[in-house]
Amino acid sequence: MNEQPNLADALRTAELVHDRATIEAAITRIADELRRDYADQRPCVMTIMNGGMYFSSLLGLQLGFDIEFDYLHATRYRGETSGGAVLNWLHRPYRPIEGKTLLLADDILDEGPTLDEVRRWCLEQGAAEVKLVVMAWKRHGRGVPGLVPDYWGLEVPDRYVFGFGMDYHEQGRNLPAIYALA
Description:
Shape: globular
Structural class: alpha/beta
Order of helices and strands: HEHEHEEEHEEEE
Distance between the termini: 26 Å
Low-confidence stretches: none
Radius of gyration: 16 Å
CATH topology: Rossmann fold
CATH architecture: 3-Layer(aba) Sandwich
Strand content: 25-35%
């Protein structure tokens, strides 16, 4: 029987990377940038579940202009700490996306194959524009070539990070800060 890793144990040795105040300031900055670029439009904030839920909710409240909200759930992780080769679609967007400007909101851009495949799928469905909006960006040389976020909040170290949407074995998504394993 595989025993689930314990979040409390992980937190005892984890490093606090970004506290709640820093996260909230980054979300305000992203909202300012999006307001500058999209306030005269009505883009759709497309949340990538489950990780993007907290980020996109707080971002939407900060925008100050009307947007559409929808979500999709696509994952390679399925509770693991590294992604598999196949993207599993658990929910596709409810609203038609043809001709729309989409702001794909997710918790993190790490290596990027999930965001890249979702972005390509949205364009194949006829989205007019797809921008990547992420709370955290892990910069390293292992990512999808050329894939960078259009809007991003904070950089995180090239370690396993969790909290504020990012999970530690399906635990800790609701932590109000971002931590890195030792």
